[in-house]
Specification:
Elements lengths: L3 H13 L3 H11 L5 H41 L3 E6 L2 E6 L1 H16 L10 E10 L6 H14 L2 E4 L2 E6 L3 H9 L6 E6 L5 E3 L2
Antiparallel strand pairs: 1-2, 3-5, 3-6, 4-5, 6-7
Protein name: Transcriptional repressor PaaX-like central Cas2-like domain-containing protein
InterPro entries: PaaX-like_central
Length: 198
């Protein structure tokens, strides 16, 4: 019918207050004879896509600013230096930066692992007692968190009891950090008897 396209344009503009270019694009994409609903749906998809792209560009700009701030900070601290090679900018690590890198890598190697291990219930009770020096307070806190997550109950700050199997990975992590010498783990075999586990 004559005036169909005009009718659709007028309805869409009245209902959605849209930009003319966006409307034309939506009509072209929808094709001749498309319903008002289809044109509106295409417009909404186009608007959503534009908003996503705008947000993506904003995030990328923020990442770039954060990167530039970090590089600037590292240069100011003397950990990086800028060099010009064949007209292109490069960064290289300074002696101070190499020393800092070695320290950070060492810290990563001694960092305590996460406090999550596989939980495995047991028929027998386990008693865990530890006496870790004050200077290793973070290790003490880590052990308490692991024991709590394993389901053991605190009898005293350094004595825990529960019906659970102590994970081998936990024992390996304790050994790796030289903490086993501060810990005693007992299994209650029968009423009145204890068996030393670790």
């Amino acid at each position: 019918m004559k005036g169909d396209i005009t009718l659709k344009i007028l309805r869409a503009v009245k209902e959605m207050s849209i930009e003319g270019i966006e409307l034309c694009e939506a009509i072209i994409i929808a094709g001749y004879g498309a319903s008002d609903f289809r044109i509106r749906r295409i417009q909404e998809e186009m608007r959503d896509e534009r908003l996503r792209n705008t947000e993506k560009v904003r995030r990328e700009k923020q990442y770039l600013r954060n990167y530039q701030k970090l590089v600037s900070k590292l240069k100011t601290q003397g950990l990086l230096k800028a060099e010009d090679r064949e007209g292109r900018g490069f960064f290289s690590i300074t002696a101070k930066g190499s020393s800092k890198l070695a320290g950070l890598e060492s810290l990563c190697n001694t960092r305590l692992p996460g406090a999550s291990y596989n939980l495995s219930p047991s028929e027998r009770s386990v008693i865990v007692s530890f006496d870790i020096p004050e200077k290793q307070k973070s290790s003490r806190d880590w052990i308490r968190e692991v024991l709590k997550r394993l389901g053991l109950k605190m009898v005293h700050k350094s004595v825990w009891i529960g019906k659970v199997k102590i994970p081998k990975q936990f024992l390996d992590d304790l050994a790796k950090r030289s903490l086993l010498k501060y810990i005693e783990i007992f299994a209650v075999e029968k009423a009145g008897t204890l068996k030393h586990i670790a």
